Hints:
Layout: H1 13-22, H2 44-57, E1 60-61, H3 64-67, H4 77-86, H5 94-107, E2 111-119, H6 126-129, E3 134-140, E4 161-164, E5 177-178, E6 187-188, E7 194-201, E8 213-220, E9 226-232, H7 238-250, E10 262-268, H8 283-289, E11 298-304, E12 307-312, E13 315-321, H9 325-336, H10 344-348, H11 363-372
Antiparallel strand pairs: 1-10, 2-3, 2-9, 3-4, 4-5, 6-7, 7-8, 8-9, 10-11, 11-12, 12-13
InterPro entries: Arylamine_N-AcTrfase (IPR001447), Arylamine_NAT_domain_sf (IPR053710), Papain-like_cys_pep_sf (IPR038765)
Family: Belongs to the arylamine N-acetyltransferase family.
Pfam families: Acetyltransf_2
Amino acid sequence: MKPISPSTSAYSEAQLRQYLSVVEYRYEEDGLDASTQPLPPPTLQTLRQLNHLHLTTFPFDSSAMQYTDDHTMNITTESIYQRMVVNRLGGSYCFGMNTLLLEMLKGLGFLAFGGGGNFEPRLYPIQDLTDCGHMVILVQIPVDTTLESKNTSSESEEPETWLVDVGYGGTGLVRPLLLSDDEKNVVIGSTSTELHRLRRIDAPKGTDASTQWWRFEKQHSQSTWDSTYIFSESPFHPSQYQQASDFICTVPSAARFWWSIVAVKYFPLSPDQDFDSNPRLSNEEVALQHPGYEDIQYGRYTLNGDVVKKTVGTQSEVVRLLVTEGERIEVLREMFGVVWQGRAEENVRGRDAAIGSGFVVPLFLWQKEAELGVSAQK
């Protein structure tokens, strides 16, 4: 991939430092005033660390689409910063989660832009309305700040590019993945029972054939490799994310968030974890046990409509079935860190996503989801 040009972050240094404080970024020199500490350098180590901290601090969360007065997911840089960083009210879905991290990475000096793509195989009507059903981040490490890159010796060689995606939800990418289809370029998913890789593909029909396209694939417990989504190397504009988000929020059944509130919360696991105890690691313990931030394994809690599950590796169990909207709002707050007050229950009343609405997933979608084993994911 060609070099990414430097770009200015939407956030100020003060906002960047507040974000680093909220995600509990560990500076090399503890004990010093964080406001005067040098900002983290734009290295691969920093990228991996921030990916982990962002993933475990902010929940994947689509509830704003149901609980707000206007039933929208506000994904502007200022709104997501206020909600997620300043007010600590919860998270967002792919557009909000990845936009926040993208702008923070740019503020630290990373060369990065937001990309877009769609699920494969085609599953939801949103994919017929936009080429950007999902947002990803493509990142390059500035050459003069890293000793980790193998490409610093020759200006003629293309720089390494990393795929970052903290906004997929269920079984998505949880750590940076080198943009390469080399057979050895495979990373683990939440645990070692899941693997992720990339494959080059031809440009889909009707798209720009001059740009390279990629397929993100996953494999579970020695099964076959399955496609999750495809994306191109072309940058996308925030207006394209906004348009896609507007479609999701206003077109009936355009995506699963129309009829189901989805939330996902990741937590790091101790190396000696088991399903029943799965002791969680603090950020300090993670830094000590995984100094490279490459092999951390995660469990997750998932809310899908009225069902809450806990998943560790191949094991998953229902931990709670929700009967009332009040119970769901309570679970979102206590288990996922998503806070709603005021008119939330009133706002969702009468909508397809309300608990007890009786909404039936359209047959063509139900059949596709059943075939693909789709659960709580983007």
